[in-house]
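User: Predict the full complex structure for these chains.
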Amino acid sequence: VTDLWHCALGQVPYGKALAVQRELHAARRDDRIPDLLLTLEHPPTYTRGRRSAAAELPMGVEWYRAQGIEVWDTDRGGRVTYHGPGQLVGYPIVSLRPLRDDVHRYVRLLEQAVIDALERAGVPATTRSGLTGVWTPEPRKIASIGIHVSRGVTTHGFAVNVSNDLQPFEWIVPCGIEHCRVTSLTRELGALQPVGELARTVSHGLARSLGHELVEVAPDRLGLLAAAA
Amino acid sequence: MATDVTMPRLSDSMEEGTILRWLKSVGDEVHRGEELVEIETDKANMTYESIDEGVLLEVLAGEGDTLPIGDVIARIGAPEEMNGSGPARDEAPKREETADGRPQTAEQGDGRQETPEPARQAVEAKPDGRVKASPVARRMARELNVALDSLQGSGPGGRIVKADIEAAAGQASETARAARSPVSGLPSPVSAPAPEGAKGEVEVVELSRLQQTVARRMAESKATVPHFYLETEIDMTEAVAVREQLKGIAGEERPAPTYNDMVVKACALALREFPRANGSFRDGHFELPSRVNVGVAVAARDALVVATIFDADRRSLGEIAAASRELAQKVRDETITPPELSGGTFTVSNLGMYGVTNFSAVINPPQAALLSVGSLERKAVVDEAGRVVARHRMGVTLACDHRILYGADGAQFLARVRQLLEQPLSMAL
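Assistant: Here is the predicted structure of the two-chain assembly.
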């Protein structure tokens, strides 16, 4: 059995998280580290995927910045989405070789790990045909997924609304889907939910579905590794 | 011998992929395992590594093109296989960057009018008689019944691209169908006027974001919301008298309320009493918000926006007057913010200032109702004593979503609005 490292980073600005992913991607590619899952939260940020259209940020970038929300263009799949405090963000840096480089299998596997964790928390959720992400039966979108694969190693990942402010979603066209309605774990359960708890269940689920053993590692261990690289 | 690079199968369940970005240009050396192109499939982006060695001879699929697995997207071969002696690099689809630094899509890039004329000529003299066309163009040509060998391509190296097929298909339908003469015109540039017909020249105007939103929401409303309309006429004589008095008191700081402000206030008070008129039908449920937020349709430059007066039921007429003036100014200055454009639970639309006496506006989804307000007119009416008297009258029409607001409820709501406006002092309490 191989390891899945899990490292909880706390709140990290989007740009810094991108740099960390880039470094870990190189390390994973060169087999200097095993598969790894970063869990973290971002300060208020909109991120656009490669194919985001301008209309998905209808008020113009300046307006959003004036609201204190960063805007980033990224190389992940998918369209625009929002990240903010109280949202669980997971970036698995894993090799797809054991999955025979099948990206769809990997996306489904991520979705399932999120669904299982939500179900354990008491919120039934599912995927919807033709749409990625994870939805409540209503349907409201509760988690987004967008990944990038380069040289057989993944970056980016998933974002689950746990207790974050949902209003910034109303200012955009989330995931390019008109009339897409969103929800959070807190909204579904009616009581404030901690992010850390969900991070724990998702990381266990992901380890299980990848056939790995979960190993918690401290951020400074990755820091040392980055410095040594 | 050159090798075809095809749209790779990145997953067992993958059927097609979209070219996001070419990481190499035509003429570049490509090594095995080197990153060649970025492909999107089902929300996953993949950087595809070359399995061939050589020089990138041709790129057959532009950025933004979606192709089925197995379609040829590029060709890799020996440097001497580059056709033509000139720098073929110029003909490659360029990775044009948009103002915000992101690559343009092929739709935008397809109109490569800058392709030098000689390139086209060179292709005409193709020795093997093989037609060069992008896979998308081939598929479209089949579907639209366009003969590929009758076309001149505008793509790199004279390749026939999507735009060429579209242009040919468009022209073919314009001209007599019987004439099977080959279509030979150059593709018309994207923004050029369409060919002159019975309507003269047709200018094609792209919509602004706001106009796109208006178009989408209005079409959605008329298509999915079962509208019905209730009309009535409101006696505004008292309201006119009250407004005259208020105008005497009001100054620069506190402007007198307009008739529309009075309508907003009357609707807000009535909405408080009729929660369904203030609600939404959504996903098979009634949603009944606790706040009464009245939207006022305001004509903006080239578009229409609905500015929201929040908690209009709890604000005084003077506060509503001040708020509506401020919002109208923000709409004109284009400084209005999304929260001020959403969150409305009801809409008032007034065309009275244009002399319109009555009209029926489209409901602003997901709201349950909308009041269309006509002009204030002096009219001869018969009073209680049977005499003909001159009164100020105003025609209004309530549009209702029948899924949440039924006829009798809508009528009672409208009667309450009328009552409040006919006894305007009751709104001051």
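Confidence is low (pLDDT under 50) at residues 85-129, 172-192 of chain B.
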